[in-house]
Amino acid sequence: MKCPNCVSNAAMWLEVTQYFDFITFFMATFINGVLLNLIGTASPKHFGNYVYLMMSFSINSLIFASIHAFIQPIISTEKYVLFVFTSTNYLEVPRVLMRSLLSIYGTSYSQALVFIAVQFIYRCFSISRRKYLVYFKGRWLMFWFGMVGAFGLNWGLCIFIIAQENSQVDEILRPVMNETFDLKMSEVFYVAASYVIKDEQNNEVLNWPAIFMVINFASIMSVSFAIIVVCFFFIHYKMQRVNYSKVYESAQKQLFRALMSQMIIPSVLIYLPILIVLILPIFHVKNDASISFTSILISIYPVLDPLAVILIISVYRKGFVNMFTSRCTGQDKRTELISFAFRWLNISSIN
């Protein structure tokens, strides 16, 4: 039986999250746009090919924020089911296309995890194994981008193929959608991992494809986070024992603080929330879908991470201020951006 107050509160919360998603989208678009401009015009030469990693990460954040604002997903659990759903379909596209968008959303999320780990590996090499930076030039740089894309494709295909809508999950989610949001299943688009399914004798058995998918996701998260933690402490250890010139030391410290923010912010906003919802179905713990803090935390990430980079790295911080106070002509800035674009398009020839 529906609780009128519960439905009303859930509908209000859903509306609040929708407005919040749009706000974070516009903020993410502005801040990442500013960061991309600063990377192209204000990055010192000794940043090396790290600028391409930062640029790619920022572009991925823009894609993630755009998809999140368009589909406005809610991430939750019910019994032994982990699901991501939306009732938003502004363009009234077919269900298969909505599933594709939810899959691409997962792809972008996965690529963010791997990009962070790759950036930490680069900084680790730049601090103590500079001869290995050759593996971030030319075709090797393309290898890293390809690896990021491969992990993202892996995540997205798992969602698209394994996490499809089915009648058993429909029956589990129908009461949630009806009683909490006053939605019919025909109005809902979702992808889900049901850890348990019922066989022909109506017995509950493990759903091995879904379990494989969850283990796959958990492995990507665990390996990337382990790389981040190991590299972080290794970089900290080396920076305490190596002497640099004052200029280079200042730059390294700023990049290290930026990396620290790139460890703390993802841990709180994208690692921990998803790890929790991956674990909850194992214990059949219900996560109230009407108050999905997981979705909100994830939407904040594309805003806070680039903002931290801008504020921590002095050349970007000064460049940000100069964007509004500089007397440089627009033609000068356009020339710098065009020059950077040509360098980006020709990275395969970098020595």
What does this protein look like?
By secondary structure, the protein is mainly α. The chain has helices at 4-42, 50-71, 95-128, 138-162, 167-181, 208-239, 246-279, 293-312, 314-325, 330-345; strands at 74-78, 81-86, 189-194, 196-198, 204-206. It has a single domain (4-349), classed as Rhopdopsin 7-helix transmembrane proteins. It has a 3-stranded antiparallel sheet. A hairpin with a 5-residue loop joins strand 4 (196-198) and strand 5. Helix 4 packs antiparallel against helix 6 (208-239) and helix 6 runs antiparallel to helix 7 (246-279). The relative contact order is 0.16. The model is unreliable at 347-351 (pLDDT under 50).
Q: So how many helices?
A: 10
Number of domains: 1
**Principal-axis shape:** globular
Helix content: over 70%
Beta strands, count: 5
Radius of gyration computed on alpha carbons: 22 Å
Poorly predicted tracts of residues? 347-351
Largest sheet strand order: 1-2-3
Order of helices and strands: HHEEHHHEEEHHHHH
Please state the structural category: mainly alpha
Provide the CATH architecture: Up-down Bundle
CATH H-level name... which superfamily? Answer: Rhodopsin 7-helix transmembrane proteins
CATH class: Mainly Alpha
- Average pLDDT value? 85
What's the CATH topology label?
Rhopdopsin 7-helix transmembrane proteins
Compute the separation of the termini in Å.
68 Å
> Could you describe the largest sheet, including whether it forms a barrel?
3 strands, antiparallel
The fraction of residues assigned to DSSP E strands is 5-15%
Transmembrane segments: 19-39, 51-71, 102-122, 143-163, 210-237, 258-283, 289-316
Keywords: Membrane, Transmembrane, Transmembrane helix
GO molecular function: G protein-coupled olfactory receptor activity
Pfam families: 7TM_GPCR_Str
